[in-house]
């Protein structure tokens, strides 16, 4: 690809070439997951701590992920309170998984939307305990600002509710977060991406990365979709760097309307 | 790229590997245009007949386009009536340019939207005269149906008005055309694409190709944007073939919410 | 209501106080329809010629409509070609119903979208035969322009497909028609209105009237919805005349942010 | 109007007939404001405490509002922290204005969006101190839930940022709040309403009331717009009670397509 060689994603001092992070849930088989990860060229792979066999005594998801190639990002999926999320992060660290944590605190009301108050509380505790915290959050820039002030390593707002595949419901709000965070930490659009065009759009708005799970794992052909998403993230990033045209209310001819045959450009 | 080797675009019996068609207007220089065409990997390049030096006696746009590499598609940009468009197509053919024509009939009211009645009339005449006609048209599927019945070689509905970069204003209408045409001739989304995500979306809806001019030529870095658009078309096509997830009103966890630590997938 | 007394709708020389036209299909009973018409305060009531008992020998829809109070507008619902529509209009006139006709030419493809070519052809014939023609049309302003040039008495673009209740899918296109027609003949938004807010919005955009059928007849409480629609049309019209604020990308405080307690306005 | 006589809005035990609340900022003159209030038929009028001459020694906004007719709702506009908002509410109560308070806590970042954390903190304190608290809040249902649990008397989510007139940017989120609150306290859509159709739509979604300031005060004709907004709120409420048709993807004829002339309904 033609992206500049120094166009890297840096999170808490670590650099990555890929701007596509992927999840590991919902695949039909571990083998399918492994093949999709491979094709995606992702470097960061998020894993629900609840789903990992921490003692590794029997077959585990982790056996299918080459940890020399992928950076494992444990997440607190399934935690409904700050206390549960903190406990889960500690457990993962104690088991040697990582001191990075993708923080998710989601009440049980069926919307799968993150609870801003519990998320802030957990983030504060975890940062104080030395974790590198990557919080899944709403698209409210004032919540994002507080997460930033606490010392989180990324801001990860949703595009739309988890698993809906509805794309970016509020470009305004995402843009507000991107403008606010402005190069201090990466913004990663997490949740709701349903198609390659959604991933490209997130990047075009200036997001630093996207995280995708369901849209790949539940596509009709997950491995082919992993490939499509890889291309889409590259396309969106390239488009962002190339500087898109402004949207205009008024039509503009691409060929001069006053031109005559034989006239130059 | 990993698209199947037999995933080709066929128009009037000719096959193409690329699903990105590009225009030649609005570049700062011919050299910039040439470089953008190169990076885009487009095979079909559309040229306003009015802008071509048909007698080739002095420097012309065509000198900058390698005709062994690109297929030149003359267009009737600047024509406001069926009669003008027919005359322009004949002129291009007589000058040896091509018997293919991208038909554009656009009144002078500033909206740059195609006139369905004049377009139908011109299409009918041109098909009868043996032209391969690729008409720029509205997103009205009933107009598309008539163009199809006349024997046009593609249907080229707009996404939004020319040069506005507003993307696909009506996915419903485009889908209706795509469903209607259903593999009889290619559908090419023409006009209004502003960013890579728009190009990807058009392909995801099932369009067979897209045509882009302003969004590349007027980007801050046209050559880089040509690259982004190439990737976006590939991403969108791959996504279409991979089968995206359905959009859902209800959130769906990507990790099982009932799982316990240690549990398998 | 406080609308200016001279705020009247004029079509082909006839004036009306109400800007809400209503249809007569889909009610559970004729009695319910009669009550809804009454509450709506509509003056123009459209009736499918196919559904009218033209010889009046047995119970007919028309027996339930007080023709001294309502102006009956026959429509050509169910006609798929210009020829059928012309024949139906002639039949209605011959039976003494009216020389006004709401022209609908809709192919049988299930979309219920008007065919622009057949509509133009029928409109031309009917205007030449002395009919007052109110054509149901797409939201394509170039088709609207031709209908205007033919001599139609109104332009009646759709908001969204008939019966879908999806409101105004393209405010841009409606505005383009409204700007074009600009006081020459009334613009009536017909089809797709699902809720009072849709009716208000159509009026705010500058439409001269709206025509509603399904959204009233199939509401849970049709008579109450007729009342709601009446209010909504008044609200939208009043809002249009009062001149709404511009939409702004930037927030603007409604209370001065620099003010001190005790400071004046 | 024909709304049922018992269709009343009840907040903290007080009942109101009108579901339109209005603000008092941004009018050209106090006289214009008074006339607009009159025409709006609002009963609840919100006033920035900062703008009120609390000692009443000189001419004040309050001199123009008939307090036997209107219920004055002091607001904390201009407060950027919980502490400031609490202080302002106490000041208003001490001055005899009211123990009701419309709580607004808005940071100085120019977006005019409410800070969820400061708002929650201020709400908690004020409820504990015996205030009737009506908080302006985001459209995040999890924040709304906490405000409800604290004991707030209403939930007042925004439609779009204050003064933008962009209407209801997220119907999904508003609906989620309305479903959650479900008759426990009223939901009042506050901020962003730009036109009568926006007000009607808020009511159709099931909001119990709307609060409007800029869209009336800065309309070209504020008094006429107050009238339009009154009608729109009535229309939307009536439409909500009447039960709108479902939106459908598929077109549905309003006249039977199989009918023959003469056939009954």
From TrEMBL, chains A, B, C, D:
Residue ranges occupied by any Thiazole synthase ThiG domain in the UniProt entry: 10-256
Example of a GO MF term: thiazole synthase activity
Binding residues for 1-deoxy-D-xylulose 5-phosphate: 163, 191-192, 213-214
Pathway terms, separated by semicolons: Cofactor biosynthesis; thiamine diphosphate biosynthesis
Keywords: Cytoplasm, Schiff base, Thiamine biosynthesis, Transferase
GO cellular component: cytoplasm
Subcellular location as annotated: Cytoplasm
InterPro entries: Aldolase_TIM (IPR013785), Thiazole_synthase_ThiG (IPR033983), ThiG (IPR008867)
Pfam family, one: ThiG
Catalytic activity: [ThiS sulfur-carrier protein]-C-terminal-Gly-aminoethanethioate + 2-iminoacetate + 1-deoxy-D-xylulose 5-phosphate = [ThiS sulfur-carrier protein]-C-terminal Gly-Gly + 2-[(2R,5Z)-2-carboxy-4-methylthiazol-5(2H)-ylidene]ethyl phosphate + 2 H2O + H(+)
Primary localization class, coarse: cytoplasm
Gene Ontology biological-process entries: thiamine diphosphate biosynthetic process
Enzyme Commission number, as recorded: 2.8.1.10
Domain of life where this protein originates: Bacteria
Active site residues per record: 102
Subunit: Homotetramer. Forms heterodimers with either ThiH or ThiS.
Family in the record: Belongs to the ThiG family.
Entry function: Catalyzes the rearrangement of 1-deoxy-D-xylulose 5-phosphate (DXP) to produce the thiazole phosphate moiety of thiamine. Sulfur is provided by the thiocarboxylate moiety of the carrier protein ThiS. In vitro, sulfur can be provided by H(2)S.
Protein name: Thiazole synthase
Organism: Sulfoacidibacillus thermotolerans
């Amino acid at each position: 690809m033609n992206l500049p060689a120094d166009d890297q994603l840096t999170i808490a001092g670590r650099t990555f070439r890929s701007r596509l992070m992927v999840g590991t849930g919902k695949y039909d088989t571990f083998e399918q997951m492994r093949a999709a990860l491979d094709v995606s060229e992702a470097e960061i792979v998020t894993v629900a701590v609840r789903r990992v066999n921490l003692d590794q005594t029997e077959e585990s998801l982790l056996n299918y992920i080459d940890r020399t190639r992928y950076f494992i990002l444990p997440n607190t999926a399934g935690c409904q309170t700050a206390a549960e999320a903190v406990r889960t992060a500690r457990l993962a660290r104690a088991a040697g998984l990582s001191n990075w944590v993708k923080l998710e605190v989601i009440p049980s009301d069926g919307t799968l939307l993150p609870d801003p108050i519990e998320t802030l509380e957990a983030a504060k505790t975890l940062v104080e305990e030395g974790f590198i915290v990557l919080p899944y959050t709403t698209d409210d820039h004032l919540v994002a600002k507080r997460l930033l002030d606490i010392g989180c390593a990324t801001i990860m707002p949703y595009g739309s509710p988890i698993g809906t595949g509805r794309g970016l419901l509020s470009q305004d709000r995402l843009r507000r977060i991107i403008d606010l965070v402005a190069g201090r930490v990466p913004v990663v659009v997490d949740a709701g991406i349903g198609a390659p065009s959604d991933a490209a759009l997130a990047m075009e708005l200036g997001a630093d990365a996207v995280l995708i799970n369901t849209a790949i794992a539940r596509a009709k052909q997950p491995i082919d979709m992993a490939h499509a998403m890889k291309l889409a993230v590259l396309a969106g990033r390239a488009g962002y760097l190339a500087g898109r045209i402004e949207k205009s209310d008024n039509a503009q001819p691409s060929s001069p309307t006053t031109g005559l045959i034989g006239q130059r450009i």
